[in-house]
Amino acid sequence: MDPVLALTVRGGSARWSDLGRDVARGTLLRAVRDGRVERPGRGVFALPGADPGQLAALRVGGVLSCHSAAAARGWALLRPPAAVHLEVAAGSRRTLRGAVLHRSGSALSAGGATDLRGTVVGAVRCLPLVEAVVLLDGLLRDGVLDPDDLDLVAAGLPRRFPHRRAFALVDARAESVLESAVRVACVLAGLRVASQVRLAGVGRTDLLVEGWLVVETDGREHHAATFQEDRRRDARTAQLGGLTLRFTHADVVHRLEETVQLITEVARAGPRGRLRPVPPG
What we know:
By secondary structure, this protein is of the alpha+beta class. The protein is built from twelve helices and ten strands. It is 40% helix and 18% strand.
């Protein structure tokens, strides 16, 4: 088989131990000399531009894990992983600069990443608490897991498992990673927060803080077409005695601590009136 085709069907990279079943070694080495195939590590071959996470996993004989595996699965994360996280066999002595290696006695998936439960547990273990909840909210929102699945995962964790409380902070009503992040950070700051509350005369809001302060998170996909409607809603909220604070993608992803500090200071200054949530249903 042509080396480029063989690597393409394997996702762009593979070890010789795998390629050797379909490709003659001489043919593969000629492809390397021609520049059609690269050799980034001993026994590892790849197409130019191959996924760096997959290459890292091949070089240490492991698989993607934690939030690296979550990112590979397309799950919602507040931020991309700063370094690739890999799971290798417990007895492995291999190291890789710039990668975080987790040594486990469990069997490694042949699919290039830890299985679903292992990925969830690993991500909750490695991510900061707020970002772990963001991920769990997204898994419920996208239908990857249901609440019973989360209960099963949480029940199987050690009692002293780091960030175990993440499971208690999950809210299936969250509609975006930005909303989840602000909600959890505000709760951890001691504020009373409700998600996706419908207010009489205003409509549905991302977050209602302390019963009167509306917080909206406007992501990168927020369109100019909604500008006029947003201002109408904000004016109506003010007319009813409330206040609206709006935050951008950058405010949440890059300045979350400052954003929550601002929300906290405004919330604790007290309301001018009281908004009326519409009962569910």
